[in-house]
Specification:
260 residues, alpha/beta, six-stranded mixed beta sheet, 9 helices, 14 strands, 33% helix, 27% strand
């Protein structure tokens, strides 16, 4: 079984590190801090094999120059729509777009690229399946209990992006890049105070954080029950907040969350 480790970075980022079964090869997602990645690789005698980037923000890409210098054979995958927004000149790089499939030879693992504009216009997510388990690396598009801020895209774009992700299997493991779960669920509780699933999961996550434990990964099945941004089609929530359709409710909730 491939092993996925969360490497905490900055205030609340996670750099996801996937070690491939039976090898010392690893893939990392959004390595904003090169020192944390390099320390993990050296400690466990691992070799950087590939890097996936979801979008151009500094806390997701600033580790690239150092890591590419230290690991020149590691293949870099960047969103094609964001290539001119990343400051350093990448090497050994493939630019990816919606629908592309990244085929890693060792191990034999495929990643599908899904375009998810909203947080940024060129944001992408990466999906892979291994032994019937689906893993989603979704950057700053979907969070546990929430979704990303709209720095470049529109509410309509973000809603459409979330609906794309919501088509994945219910047991999909969700690896997002920030520890925002508790604050997101406090907002979700305001949106749906009678949602027992949200209240219960908030209590669990507060306990986990109190112990210094990560709240991720989540699952799509769980998010469908607790995440208000995946529940905007629910008539009861639309009625509660006097919004007449899914798009208006999503726009209302995203603007409210910005101020929450």
């Amino acid at each position: 079984m491939h092993h996925i480790t969360a490497l905490p970075a900055f205030k609340d980022n996670y750099i996801w590190c996937m070690q491939f079964h039976g090898t010392q090869h690893v893939l990392v997602v959004d390595p904003g801090d090169p020192e944390i990645v390099q320390a993990h690789l050296l400690k466990h005698n691992l070799q950087l094999f590939a890097i996936l980037i979801t979008h151009h923000h500094w806390d997701h890409v600033d580790g690239l120059p150092q890591l590419q210098q230290q690991w020149p054979d590691a293949t870099l995958y960047l969103p094609a729509a964001e290539q001119f927004k990343i400051k350093h000149s990448p090497t050994n790089c493939h630019y990816v777009s919606d629908g592309d499939v990244i085929k890693l030879k060792q191990p034999c693992l495929d990643f599908e690229v899904i375009s998810t504009p909203g947080h940024t216009l060129g944001h992408v997510c990466y999906v892979t399946k291994y032994r019937e388990q689906t893993w989603l690396f979704c950057g700053d598009t979907l969070f546990s209990g929430g979704c990303g801020r709209l720095f470049e895209g529109t509410p309509a774009q973000m809603l459409d992006s979330l609906k794309k992700l919501n088509l994945l299997p219910a047991d999909t493991q969700i690896f997002c890049t920030h520890e925002y779960t508790v604050s997101n669920l406090k907002f979700a509780r305001e949106v749906e105070p009678d949602n027992h699933a949200t209240v219960e999961h908030l209590a669990l996550c507060e306990k986990l954080r109190g112990l210094g434990t990560i709240t991720l990964p989540s699952t799509l099945q769980l998010e469908r029950s607790i995440n208000p941004f995946l529940r905007c089609e629910q008539p009861a929530i639309q009625h509660r907040w006097r919004q007449n359709d899914e798009q208006n409710l999503f726009t209302f909730l995203r603007e409210w969350k910005n101020r929450f």
